[in-house]
Structure formats: structure tokens, C-alpha cells
Design a protein that fits this description.
Length: 363
């Protein structure tokens, strides 16, 4: 049994790393029907915009597939500021080999590098604070690589979006990843393996009052704060597979939300706090599910055809909690789709030869 659990843990960790903004699309999936003309009930009418990366360039498209705009900026992992006025993204620095965090206006102008010449490798899941003042991210400041024996030191940092002041919040020879802000911008949750297994921690935004809120011998990953700040969703292998759990923000009342033989991970709350989307590794497929926060009515939104491989991930909720944008990969190329939260009206927004990734719905 321990060997089986270890194998499942390795799978969960590999998938976690895969989804921390380094997705390269190395699998093939059965193509989903592409909708090139949207009429009648297929048309989406609320006209919200979706930000994404297309062949490494930042683009915006309306949620009815119209108004495609290339911002003419190279970058990945783009994300809207809470007020929709700015966009943060990661781009490579040719001169020093680092990745850098930039912000631009939503129209693509006034490009500001927040992390220039810090000699730090930045990567993965950048997160705006809800008040828009800071961006949290993970970075390997000073990992030491010896032959066949890498020592990983990944820490949580925040950078001020006004003056580029950078603060390192954690500092230990372990991996601290997946920072997420509380809705009031006063705390940050993240996952860490500093105790020998993955746990969920919470700290103040200055790094003080660090607390392990899961505190068990299994692995707990992918924290996601509820919109009201009262709950945190996370994934865990404590039952021998990977499932989604809920707990109070202080770590109390840990409750299993999903219960199956799949590997469920990356929970994402709907804006109204009534549902949670997540990715499920079913056999060789990656599918997107939605479930009520009491665990009822799980729905496989993407449901690949029987016998066909499917790779669907990176769910992003619409502001009205009615729809989800996500990536579907076929022949190493991603497309941005949207679908209603009940699984109806699936639409391919991008439908182009480019590799489209990292959808982010305008707040």
C-alpha cells in the first residue's frame, strides 16, 4: 500500500510542477469540434474579455470569439490586475538569462519591468493581491546544483507594483510554491515541503506568523482561498489517491470534497463561492470537473470520447460564475475554449494554428 501511495504522490507532484506555468503541451488529444460560426443559443453575449498567451505573445479576445487583439508583447502566464487596468506577465531576459515580471496597461502600453537585474530566476504562478498593490510569486534565489545532487531552494516573494520594492517572505532549503492571497490582502497561503512532505502554510504578507495549517504526514497541495476568505480548498493524497478537500482558513474542520480513484487537483473557486472547478487525472486523461462546495453534483465538463486521450486544464471562471475558460491541447498545440458551468455550449475561441495557453478571464 505504501508503494502505491508513493507512486500516486509522485504523479501528483509531477502534475503540480507541470501546471506551474511551464506547460509545454507535449501530449496529443482527440480534437474537439471547433465552432467557427456562433449563432443562436451558441453565442456568448456578455462580451467579457479573456487574456491569454499565443505562441508566446500576449493577446486578448472577447468571450464570443470576436475582437482578437495582439498586444505585441512577448510573455507567458499573463494575469489581469483586480481592477482590469493592468496585466502582469513573465518574460525572458536575454541579457542575464533570468525571467522577469512585467506589468503593462491593458492596452499594451507603458511596459514596466518590476524585477529587472535582480539576478533571480522567476517562474510560475504569479498572483496579484486583491488590492492590486503587490504581486506574489515563487523564485529559486540561490539553489545550489552539485553534480547529481541538486539542492532546491524555492521561496515566496512579493514585489510592490508601484515602486518595484521586492521582499523575500520565506527563506529555507526547501520548496515553497503556489502563493495565493486572502481576499482581504492580509495573508498568503502556499504549499511547502520543508517538513519532508507537502503541507499548506499561511503567513502574514510580511512573512510573519507562519503557520502549518494542514499538519499531517501525507501531502497537501494547491491551496485556493474562497471568495469570502472563510475557507481554503486544497488537494491531498491522505486517502491514498488524490482528492479535493476543504478546511476553514485556520486549518480546522478539514473535509473531503471528492472521493474517487482519480487524482483530483488544482481547485479553483467560482466567483460566487458556490462551486469549485478542478482538474482530474482519469487514467491517461486530464479532464475538468465542477462540483458544488458541499461535494454534490460533480460534472465532467470536458469528458473526452471513450478510448481517446484528452488533455484539458487551467480552468478560469467568468466573473458571473456561469462559464469557464480552459486549455485543450491537441498535437502539442493549445486552444482556448469556454464552456458553461453545466457542461453545455462548448466554444473554441481561438481556433488558430498558434499554441494558445494561460487563459485569464477579465475580473
Amino acid at each position: 500500500m505504501r508503494i502505491i501511495q508513493k507512486i500516486k504522490l509522485i504523479v501528483i507532484i509531477i502534475i503540480s510542477i507541470y501546471f506551474c506555468c511551464v506547460i509545454t503541451g507535449c501530449y496529443q488529444v482527440e480534437p474537439i469540434e471547433k465552432i467557427t460560426e456562433k449563432t443562436g443559443e451558441e453565442k456568448i453575449t456578455d462580451n467579457r474579455r479573456i487574456l491569454f498567451s499565443s505562441d508566446g505573445e500576449l493577446c486578448i479576445i472577447n468571450d464570443d470569439g470576436s475582437g482578437l487583439t495582439n498586444l505585441n508583447k512577448e510573455g507567458d502566464c499573463p494575469t489581469w490586475s483586480p481592477d482590469s487596468k493592468k496585466i502582469a506577465f513573465i518574460t525572458g531576459n536575454i541579457e542575464n538569462g533570468n525571467s522577469e515580471i512585467h506589468i503593462i496597461n491593458a492596452d499594451g502600453f507603458e511596459n514596466i519591468c518590476l524585477t529587472s537585474n535582480r539576478k533571480i530566476l522567476y517562474y510560475g504562478n504569479i498572483a496579484w493581491s486583491p488590492d492590486g498593490k503587490y504581486i506574489a510569486f515563487k523564485s529559486d534565489h540561490d539553489s545550489i546544483f552539485k553534480e547529481n545532487a541538486p539542492i532546491i531552494n524555492v521561496d515566496i516573494n512579493v514585489v510592490n507594483t508601484d515602486n518595484s520594492e521586492l521582499t523575500r517572505l520565506t527563506n529555507n532549503k526547501a520548496e515553497d510554491e503556489w502563493p495565493v492571497w486572502s481576499p482581504d490582502s492580509k495573508k498568503i497561503a502556499f504549499m511547502s515541503n520543508r517538513d519532508g512532505n507537502w503541507e499548506i502554510y499561511v503567513m502574514n504578507t510580511n512573512g510573519s506568523e507562519l503557520t502549518n495549517i494542514t499538519n499531517n504526514k501525507t501531502d497537501d497541495l494547491h491551496p485556493a482561498w474562497s471568495p469570502d476568505g472563510k475557507k481554503i480548498a486544497f488537494s491531498s493524497n491522505r486517502d491514498g489517491s488524490g482528492d479535493i478537500y476543504l478546511m476553514n482558513a485556520d486549518g480546522s474542520d478539514q473535509t473531503q470534497l471528492t472521493n474517487n480513484y482519480n487524482i483530483d487537483f488544482n481547485p479553483v473557486w467560482s466567483t460566487d463561492g458556490k462551486k469549485i472547478a478542478y482538474v482530474s487525472n482519469i487514467g491517461t486523461n486530464l479532464e475538468i470537473f465542477v462540483v458544488n462546495t458541499d461535494g454534490s453534483n460533480p460534472i465532467n465538463l470536458t469528458k473526452s470520447p471513450e478510448g481517446k486521450y484528452g488533455e484539458h486544464h487551467s480552468p478560469s471562471w467568468s466573473p458571473d460564475s456561469e462559464k469557464i475558460a480552459y486549455i485543450s491541447v491537441f498535437r502539442d498545440k493549445g486552444e482556448i475554449y469556454i464552456i458553461n458551468a453545466d457542461g453545455s455550449k462548448k466554444i473554441n475561441l481561438t481556433n488558430d494554428p498558434a499554441d494558445d495557453r494561460y487563459p485569464s478571464w477579465q475580473p
